[in-house]
Specification:
With about 325 residues, this protein is α+β, with helices and mostly antiparallel strands. The chain folds into two domains: about 170 residues, Ribosomal Protein S5, domain 2 (2-Layer Sandwich), CATH 3.30.230; about 140 residues, GHMP kinase, C-terminal domain (Alpha-Beta Plaits, 2-Layer Sandwich). It is about 45% helix and about 25% strand. It has nine helices and ten strands. Helix 1 packs across helix 3, helix 2 packs across helix 3 and helix 3 packs antiparallel against helix 4. The radius of gyration is 19 Å and the shape is globular. The site of (R)-mevalonate has 14 residues, from helix 4 and helix 5.
């Protein structure tokens, strides 16, 4: 470890999975985007050994309390991976930024990436994005157990990404000339990604034939969606998102609240809508190119008493460089 700076500072993007959460755990390609909202981490000296956490992120009620143990484990995993020793001199870590701490929008990954970057700056380590991504992946294990790596990848690199887990993950940028508006709708339900992933695993083992068919279609959708995005054919992207949601319902990771918000968004004119992230609650995403459609869909969801975030897919690092 080198000498310490007086302050370290880093950001990590929130994310929205456009295609194939859960399927991605089994090596099916997924499409994920960083969103315009992010978490900022600040690291400063602390006069005791260990670490102190000051969490100022806006959050879904109960999210922070429910995740506290997992968050601490996640930090410990990252300290270990980075070779950070806090026995003599501790650090104070402050989390803030405009990303809601909620299930499904990459809150855990964004905080892992932000903290990894801030610690690297504080301890004067020069790390590549690839190394930051590896550290954040380690941190994600505190929350998920066996994450695919899709969330931390979007949080690290920003933009729109084709991600396929493998012996060596395939991480390809999908070009999108301008960011596209989306609405994220929050069911307000905090969920446990690990439990959702474990549930799919059990059901997949018990219904191999049915699940194989669903997984094959999910794979097919990823390729069709990539082409539709590259062609800026958002009507087709939306239709494929709707179909992807159906597949997620079939593997039983949707919920009554998610289906309700998905239907409201579609009725209000969204080109497509689906759950995003681990499911069972958490958040959904609606594709709403243009500010007018975005406002219309967000208003329809808010009228039913649910919180929304109006943001974009395809947000780049450069777009938040001033932070
Ligand atoms: C969670 O955001 C995405 C999941 O596919 C889990 C993972 O990929 O690690 C449900």
């Amino acid at each position: 470890m080198g000498f310490c700076m007086t302050k370290g500072h880093g950001i990590g993007f929130g994310k929205a999975i456009l295609f194939n959460e859960h399927f991605v755990v089994y090596g099916i390609p997924s499409i994920v985007s960083a969103i315009g909202n992010y978490t900022v981490a600040k690291v400063e000296v602390y006069d005791k050994p260990g670490f102190k956490l000051v969490d100022k992120r806006p959050a879904t009620p109960k999210y922070k309390e429910d995740k506290l143990d997992q968050q601490k484990e996640s930090f410990e995993l990252m300290f270990k991976k980075m070779g950070v020793d806090l026995l003599k001199k501790g650090v104070s870590i402050t989390l803030e930024g405009n990303l809601f701490a909620a299930s499904g929008i990459g809150a855990s990954a964004a905080s892992c990436v932000a903290v990894a970057r801030a610690l690297a700056e504080y301890f004067n380590m020069t790390l590549s994005d690839e190394e930051i991504n590896e550290i954040a992946f380690e941190g994600e294990k505190g929350y998920h157990g066996t994450p695919s790596g899709v969330d931390n990848t979007a949080s690290t690199y920003g933009g729109l990404i084709w991600f396929q887990k493998g012996e060596k993950n395939i991480i390809d940028r999908i070009a999108l000339s301008n960011p596209v508006e989306i609405v994220i709708g929050n069911t307000g339900k905090v969920t446990d990604t690990k439990a959702a992933v474990d549930g799919v695993k059990q059901r997949k083992e018990m219904n191999q034939k049915k699940y194989q068919e669903v997984f094959d279609r999910a794979e097919n959708i990823a390729y069709l969606a990539k082409r539709a995005i590259q062609d800026r054919s958002f009507t087709n992207v939306g239709k494929l998102m709707n179909e992807n949601h159906k597949l997620l319902q079939q593997i039983e990771v949707s919920s009554r609240e998610l289906d309700f918000l998905v239907n409201i968004a579609r009725d209000a004119g969204a080109l497509g809508a689906k759950l995003t992230g681990g499911g069972l609650g958490g958040n959904m995403i609606a594709l709403t190119p243009g500010k007018e459609l975005q406002n219309k869909v967000a208003t329809a969801i808010e009228k039913e008493g649910f919180q929304t975030v109006k943001t974009v897919i395809g947000a780049s690092r450069e777009s938040v460089e001033h932070i």
